[in-house]
Structure formats: structure tokens, C-alpha cells
Amino acid sequence: MSAKSDAAGSRGIRLGLRENWQQFSLLVLINAFVGGMVGLERTVVPLIGAEEFKIASTTIVVSFIVSFGVVKTIANLVSGHFADVYGRKHMLVLGWLFGLPVPFMLGWGPNWGWVIAANALLGINQGFAWSMTVIMKVDLVGPRSRGLAVGLNEFAGYLSVGLTAFLTGYIAERYGLRPAPFYLGIGYAALGLILSTLLVRDTRHHVGLEVSRHAGTTEAVRFWEIFRRASFGDRNMFAASQAGLVNNLNDGMSWGIFPLFFAGFGLGVERIGILKAVYPAVWGVLQTVTGPLSDRWGRKGLIVAGMWVQAGGLFLTALTHSFGWWFVASVLLGIGTAMVYPTLIASVSDASHPSWRARSLSVYRFWRDMGYAIGALSAGIMTDLFGAAWAIAVIGALTFASGVVVAVVMNERRQ
Questions:
Q1: Other Cβ atoms closer than 10 A to 357
Q2: Which end of the chain is more exposed for a tag (fewer CB within 10 A), N or C?
Q3: Which helix (H) or strand (E) holds 2?
Q4: Which of 63-72, 76-85, 89-98 is least confident?
């Protein structure tokens, strides 16, 4: 798209949350449904593998997260480019079309291969749909409120992850692991597709308006140059990308290992659901605070402190053996992740020109969500070899080290 043509199409378009509150609120609601699709799996799917399909190897049980993570990273990588070429709305709708079969495959699939295949489709759904809700909100609000926009987006998504994790645990305790918990997902997918198709408007003209106001000329940058910058060429984007990868590495580990770890100490599925819910729920709610704070206080301090708080939560989980301490540890994980998650996306947006911001965010999300696959696979192998407590502690140490990298490498950048 050219800056000139988009600027011409931007007449009557305004940037800002207040000016675009209706579309912004609609995208918040849609991302709640996107998050709910992931929440379907947080409590019950590892238990389905261990209890219903009788899979003894933790590495094989967490293979569904590996398939999700690998496919989502690829979907993230191409989503920004396709969004620039075909439009944000088209990619959002496409993401929901891939998500429609997922709850049916999870609820009624006859073997573990169906679960792995469902997670490949879920990876495309999340890579397209969640990416578009983030990008479109950043497009709508302009440069001054990026942290707020991302915070509200991630609040909706991860609060829904937490609530759905709790609800699926509650339903599974009363009606069994399958298929009842997955009825929620059928509703999420149907509503997300209908709202995205009928009510969402594309935001390309908001991008055109921002480009026309941006100091300097539009940068014509090839995708692989953007990939290089976001991966290691720009020190701020490198720091954000490695922190995002490690953040989702420990999240992927907690997704696959925590339910099995807690069940090994005799916790029932409903109490496991509470523990699996409190972490993303705290994460989701607090992002409404941490996102705007990063606009005012800066990005670096929140990221560093957030990685270290997450590490503390992981160490506490590994070293204790009671529901109460695990609850506290889950709260710490939620607080730390809330400090990091919207701030990392905002920091990448800060370092990007508006004309290629969608593509730089897609590269960041590629590295960040690669953490799901790496975390689940490495934690599964370590659990099989040394036990779950060791796996959790090792990944806690890696999370602390990632915070040190941000402290040393990242430069604070003010708008």
C-alpha cells in the first residue's frame, strides 16, 4: 500500500481510543473469544492424554503444545505481510474459519492424533485472529496509547483464558473430560466468526493517516530486512524477542506440565482448574494497568521486573507441595507476565515505522510463540528424565536470565 493513496483514503478517519471506541470495544470482545479457544485446553487436555488415552510419556502428552506452537509461529510470521497485502479484516475472518473445527476435534476425536491436528488448526486461528486484534487496536489508537491498547487487548484474551480454564475444570469434574467442556469452544468460534464477518471494519486507512503524519518518508523495507532487525539487528527488538520467547517458553511448560505435576500430588481436576485459571486471570486483569503504565513510566523496567517476578513464581511452584503455596505462585506468575506481555508488544511498536509495524510485530510474535514449542518439548523431556520439579526450576532460572539480558541490552525509548 502507498502512503499517498492511504492518506487520501484517510479523510474523515481519526486516531485515538475515544474516537474509535466502538470498533475498539468490538475487537476487545472478539479477542475474548480468541483467548477462550486457548483456555479450553489449559486444564483438561493434558489430563485427557494421561487419563483417557493412557499416554505414559510426558513428552508425548505435551506434543499437542508443540504442534500448536510451531504452527502458530509460522502463522504469526506471515500474518503481518498478508495483513498489509489483503487487509486486517480478511485475515481475522480467515483465522476464525480455521478455528471452527477445533472444539469438535478435541471433544470427539478418537485418538491423540486428532488432538495434535486440532492444535495445528488452533495455532493458525491464534496466529491470524489474535495477531489481527492486536495490530488493529494499535492502528486505531495511534502512537500515544499503544501500551493501553495492547493492555486492553491482552486483558480480554487472557482473562478469557483463565475463566475458560476454570469453567472447563468445573465442567470436567461433573460431566467428564470429554466432550462437555468443549461445548464452550463451539460457541466461542461461532460468535467470533459472525462478529468478525459482519461488524469489524478494516483499519488500513488509520495506518495511512499515521504514516502521513510520521516524521520522515515512508520506509520501503523488505521483509527479510525487517526479520533481521526484529530478531537481532535492533537491540531493543532483539531484547524484546528473546524475552517474549522465554516468557512463552515458561507458559508452554506450565500449560503442559503443571496439570500433571499437581495431579501427581493428588489434586482433583476442579482444584487444578482453579490453579490454571488464576494465573491467566491475574495476567489478563493487570494488563489494563501495566499497559498504560508502560506508556508513562517506560518499557524496560517493567519488562525486567516482570521476568524476575515470573522466575520467583516458578521457583515457588517447584519447591512447595501444597495448594496454598501453588496458588500464591500462580498469582506471582500472573503479575510478572502482566508486567511483561503488553509492554513487549508496545516496545516493538515503538521501534518500528508505521509502514512496516505489522510485519515487525509478526516477527516478534514468531519468536515469542516459538517458546510454546520449545518450552513444552524441553520441559517434557526434563520431566521424563529428572522429574517435573527440576524442569520447572530450570525454566525459572532461564526466565531470570532473560530479565538480565533485557536489563543489559535494551535502551529506554520515549514517545
A1: 25
A2: C
A3: none
A4: 76-85
207 CB-near residues (< 8 Å, 6+ apart): 1, 6, 139, 354, 355, 357, 358
The DSSP annotation for 85-145 comes to HH-HHHHHHHHHHHHTTHHHHHHH-SSHHHHHHHHHHHHHHIIIIIHHHHHHHHHHH-GGG
Q: What are the grid coordinates assigned to 17, written together?
A: 481510543
- The per-type count for the chain, helices as H runs and strands as E runs, is 19, 0
How far is it, in rounded angstroms, from Cα 339 to Cα 370? 20
Helix (H) or strand (E) holding 177: none
- CATH number of the 18-209+221-409 domain: 1.20.1250.20
CA 388, CA 321: separation in Å to the nearest integer? 12
What average pLDDT does the structure give for the chain?
A: 89
Asked if 202 and 89 touch (Cβ cutoff 8 Å), the reply is yes
130: left (phi over 0), alpha (psi -120 to 50) or beta: alpha
Query: What CA–CA distance (Å, rounded) separates 177 from 168?
Result: 8
pLDDT higher than 70, residue 5? no
- Whether pLDDT at 187 is above 50: yes
The alpha carbon of 15 is separated from its chain's Cα centroid by a whole number of angstroms, namely 25
Q: At what angle do helices 183-198 and 88-99 cross, to 10 degrees?
A: 160
Quick one: which of 341, 329, 335 has its CA closest to 282? Answer: 335
Q: Are 88 and 132 in contact (CB under 8 A)?
A: yes
**Please, how many CA atoms are within 13 Å of residue 6, restricted to the half-sphere of its CB?**
21
Which residue type is seen at 371? G
pLDDT at site 337: 95
C-alpha cell at 86: 489483503
Give the residue among 204, 160, 163, 197 at the shortest CA–CA distance from 29: 160
Task: Return the domain boundaries, the chain.
Answer: 18-209+221-409
Q: Look up the pTM and report it.
A: 0.81
Retrieve residue 167's grid coordinates.
469453567
> 87: which residues sit within 8 A by CB, 6+ positions away?
202, 204
Give the model confidence (pLDDT) of 344-382 as tens digits. 988 898 888 777 777 888 889 889 989 989 999 999 999
Residues, the chain: 415
